[in-house]
User: Fold these one by one.
Assistant:
Number 1:
Amino acid sequence: MINGAHVIIYSRDAEADRDFFRDVLRYPHVDAGRGWLIFKLPPAEVAVHPAEVDSHELFLMCDDLDATIAELTASGVEFVKQPERQPWGVLTSIRLPGGSELGLYEPLHERAHDL
C-alpha cells in the first residue's frame, strides 16, 4: 500500500534551493543522478482545508519557532513575515534562494505524526 509521500518544490533556481536544503537545513539526501538531490524529510502530516480554488502548500514544522528562527537567521535565512499566532500554531515563512516562500510553523495542536 502507500508507504510515503514525495513532495516537489518547483523553483526558478532549483540548484540554489537544493543547496539550501543540503547546506542550511542539513537534510540527508540521495543523488538520483546528475546532481538531482532527493531529500529525506522529517515526519510529515497532511491536512485538507476547504478552499474556493485547489492549491497545495508546504509547511515545515518545528518544536520551538523562536529558537528555529534564531538558528536560521544566524545561517543567513531571510524571513518573509513576522511570526503570527493562530489557534492551531505559530507560523512564519522563509525566502528560499530561488525566490519562493516556504512555510514554517510550530504546531499548537496534537501532532498526527506522533500517532
Number 2:
Amino acid sequence: MIILARQQNEKTVMGILSLLPGLREIPHLKAEIAWYHNSDTRELYIWQSESQGQVQGVLGVEIYDDEITIIRHVALSPESRSVKNYFAMLSDYQSQHPDVFLMGTLDNQKLINKWRKSVSKTTA
C-alpha cells in the first residue's frame, strides 16, 4: 500500500532515502526532502506491503501536466529490497494514478522498463 508521506513520517522517509547513493549526507538529504515539500508538483510517498505493518519504502515523484510522472527516487529498506517489492511499489502508485505514464531518471529507468515489461506480460 502506498500513501502520501506526512510530517510524522519524516524520520522514516529520511532513513530510507539516506540509503540511496548521493543522499547519505544529512544536509543534502534535508535539501532533497525540502525540494519535494516546496512544490505542488512533487510528492513523497511511503510504501508498505500488505503483509508487513511497517514502512518499507519511499517513492519520490514529480508530476507533469497530470499525464506524466517522473519517478525521482525509489528506495526500499535493506531487508525489503527485492524486485518483487520494487515492482509492487510501482504498481501500487500506478493503480492510484491509472492515467499517468511513469518515467524514470537516468538512475532508475532500467527498473521502470523492467516493471513495465512485467506488467504488460501479466495483462496480456
